[in-house]
Amino acid sequence: MRPEVLNELRDIVGSENVSTSAADLYTYGFDSSIHHHSPEVVIRPGSTEEVSMVVKVAARDHIAITTRGAGTGLCGGAVPLHGGIVLDTTRMNKIREIRVQDLYCVVEAGVVNDKLNEALAPFKFFFPTSPGSGEACTIGGMVAANASGMRAIKYGATRDYVMGLVVVLADGSIVHTGTRTLKNSSGYQLERLFVGSEGTLGIITEVTMRIAPKPKKVAMVMAAFPTLEDAGKCVSKLIATPLLPSACELMDKTCIQAVNKTIQAGLPDCEALCMIEVDGEPEVVERDAQKVQGVARETNAFSVELTHDAKVMAKWTNARKSVMASLSRFGEKFVSVSLADDMAVPISKIPDAVVAFQQIAARNNVIIGTYGHAADGNLHTKMLVDPISEVSWRNGEKAVGEIYDIVIKLGGTVTGEHGVGISKAPFMQKERPTMLTTMAAIKKAMDPQDILNPGKMQEWQGGIIKHLRYPCKDLD
Ligand SMILES: Cc1cc2nc3c(=O)[nH]c(=O)nc-3n(C[C@H](O)[C@H](O)[C@H](O)COP(=O)(O)OP(=O)(O)OC[C@H]3O[C@@H](n4cnc5c(N)ncnc54)[C@H](O)[C@@H]3O)c2cc1C
Description:
With 476 residues, this protein is α+β, with helices and mostly antiparallel strands. The protein has helices at 3-13, 22-27, 48-61, 113-120, 139-145, 152-155, 190-194, 228-240, 253-263, 282-298, 310-321, 323-327, 350-363, 390-409, 425-431, 436-446; strands spanning 18-19, 41-43, 65-68, 85-88, 95-99, 104-108, 125-126, 162-168, 174-178, 203-210, 212-213, 217-225, 247-252, 272-280, 303-307, 335-337, 367-373, 378-385.
């Protein structure tokens, strides 16, 4: 990048918010995926106006801009494939308004999910999506990825809470979308276009979000099963009861053993377990908890435990949230990688999916841990790979392809909440062939120079074992 351009960027955001240090360029080349590519400069603007001025400079000089929230994305969305600028939003971290009487709040894009919930707690309100990364991920990143989490089955995903956005477009102009009213039929619902756009259509700087009252009471049931298939059947039977739990987390034996070994979680030694949360008025919670226990026993659970104790619930939830990190310590030499890690299938297809994943793992000589927000059909399969072994990556890549073929055949999607980025790109292209031309046309209309997060989603070409963060060569 030309030194004059770097000086212009320093003038806009202040030199303390521009970095070209080797350490920063290396670090900002990662998100939480398997991919890495360094930018040429990292900048941390503090306002929409500064973002707009930065984009105008980049547009004039055809410089790529990759927006980054907390970098917790698991598919390479924030990895600056074309170098250029990484635009870090974390200085834009003000909660501007909380209006519980109007059911909304207004936050800057860099506000962290859990910080927003801390601010909402005194009002007895919350932003319910509950991603596992809530203590770090930003609201802007969540909108850009349409993130969700444990409570999506009852409370929906981020998209269901976006009422309006302030966005800087690829030419630096600023657009205000949506309203502060719950209902709005006033023109194209442009705010929805930016949900899930992963920084390819614009840079979100402010979000007007719907908020929800917190439930009065919560209870949790932990049920242990003799087979993964039984656990899957429990989930779909529960929904058909009908009963809408506020969360339903499934873990297979590999995940259970990993958290028991790593954090001494003390989970039951079994093939699979479900942690099912119900919430609402006390009498509803009591009734639903009874129903959950009944369904678990009918689907062969051999141990069923109910708790109303907040400390026990926090311990169980922590065990579930520790799966990803614990799997990396499961076997010597192996790391747990996010490959084929976020599919969603129709809820009734969960038993078919989990059985197929086990068969694929055995056939391809890979270890796969399966867990996830099963009640909304969203499963996570973490694959254990020897990161310096080409054979291990090849086996993993083959298993990934087979997993997605099954998912698509079952009527599912390759990503339920993490987004596409790089790691899901070829499979999203396979899943949605009729959408690709329209996606490309929208991108061309909104970012004709292709400077916003280029090379991702529909633009990605080839396989995914590329731009690895590990010391192993890219696969063809
Ligand atoms: C331990 C762990 C658990 C997780 N659990 C969940 C989970 O339960 N549910 C879930 O949905 N995800 C989960 N994730 C994935 C991740 O946390 C989410 O995708 C989250 O939304 C990413 O937010 P971020 O601020 O880190 O965004 P980043 O990773 O920085 O960016 C994600 C994408 O959004 C774009 N982007 C970021 N900010 C903006 C902006 N202001 N404007 C435009 N584009 C932007 C980036 O360019 C990138 O494409 C988990 C990740 C980890 C590491």
